[in-house]
Amino acid sequence: xxxxxxxxxxxxxxxxxxxxxxxxxxxxxGVTRLSLSEVDxxxxxxxxxxxxxxxxxxxYDDMGNMYAVLSGQDDSLSPVVIGSHLDSxxxxxxxxxxxxxxxxxxxxxxxxxxxxxxxxPIVVVNFTNEEGARFxxxxxxxxxxxxxxxxxxxxxxxxSEGVPFEKALHESGFMGSEENRLKxxxxxxxxxxxxxxxxxxxxxxxxxxxxxxxxACYEIEVSGESDHxxxxxxxxxxxxxxxxxxxxxxxxSKLNELPDDLVYTIGRMEVSPNIxxxxxxxxxxxxEARHQDMDIIKExxxxxxSLEKSSGECQVNVRKLWGRETVWFEEKVxxxxxxxxxxxxxxxxxxxxxxxxxxxxxxxxxxAAMVFVxxxxxxxxxEDELTPWEDCExxxxxxxxxxxxxxxx
Length: 409
Ligand SMILES: [Zn+2]
Prior knowledge:
Structural class: alpha/beta
Strand content: 15-25%
Oligomer: single chain
Bound molecules: zinc ion
């Protein structure tokens, strides 16, 4: 028997995304929807209403994560789970996060429209506080689910007004029980905008994400001596900023010899005393690098650590701030997403994610993978964030096609 090809309703998806963008829309057509803020609560209630209208039941867990369940033929089977997050950063875009939740909603609407009943239940999830823009850290709730973060510590996290996450969650009406946590799944699928320029640059519509890259972050402190900028001859100076500059040139020439898909950033620098008439006595900067191959990250670490030896007139101290291993997504799920993109005739490539997502934590205990759609000019976490509606539609079609295959397996 020919398998029935079920496609989503692109126009309805667009309307859904526009509806959600109304919750916290900014003057420049972006979105400010901080986690558990008034507009986030409105978006959550809207999501719940939409799901209930489809006959789904909605439950919350003890982190306020929302799960909307569409019954399958056999609800004792583990579900296929689709989702992401509804919260945004301040002056963020209309696509980051919400696209992954809207994908689940539109997939279920299309399933209901076509009157197909998959074997397994389908769950659409909204993870609380992915951005960490109001309560640190980011990916807070998927972090608790996967055991990466301690729940009690998370509950104590406060926003800039001193409101603890626990209080905000309690007052939100979305605090549920631990029993409802996401425990099992045939697969977890997250559709997200790429947040980078690669797909657009290569004129591709779909990114099948194989991993979230590992990274390491170092702080390098260069210590010299402050003296008068007018009276101290150049040969008698211990200028910490010039020494830091030499180190940065050295770092760049060494890192540029590593594979060209290594990305590295010197994103923060502090100069002391930062006065134009005084020779700097201290320059502190960070070096952060990301790559999927942890051996490459190890080489970066070696380069960073060896900076201490190359001190010259100034003293150099190197300290590792943090790091994380590459998270590889489940091969079977990745293959399914690739097969779906193929079936649908969409141009795609396998790629890595340089940014963190809920799926990377969920992947530590459930089979998970992600789909990317293009970000125009690579813009994200900005009001300029844009993904063409047709590309959103293609991304959701890949999610739906994969979800149906997995839900009937
Ligand atoms: Zn996101």
